Amino acid sequence: MTASDRAVELARAAAAAADDKKAERTLALDVSAHLALTDVFVITSASNERQVSAIAEAIEEALAELGADAVRREGLKEGRWALLDFSEIVVHVMHDEERVYYDLERLWKDCPLVALS
DSSP code of 58? Predict the structure, then answer.
């Protein structure tokens, strides 16, 4: 099983919005073969709490323009790890320190990368 075309479209839009806000090390993982809940994880990071929140808000706005609204959001207020669940994709906007500590890329290393450009 691979990620749907819609999930890839949303992941690319999320990555572009993150890039516009100077996010760092953005990547997307096709988790569809391992999870029934979503197709793609988008992971990106920033060096401070304000930037984490700004990136998350920009992603929400960009995906809303494509007709995708977050069904769940967590961590926006704290600005350390914002999780945005759009059903087809889940976006993790992480502070650099949390990204290093939790190392989601290692946890999901068996999942293929989604081309973002």
Answer: H
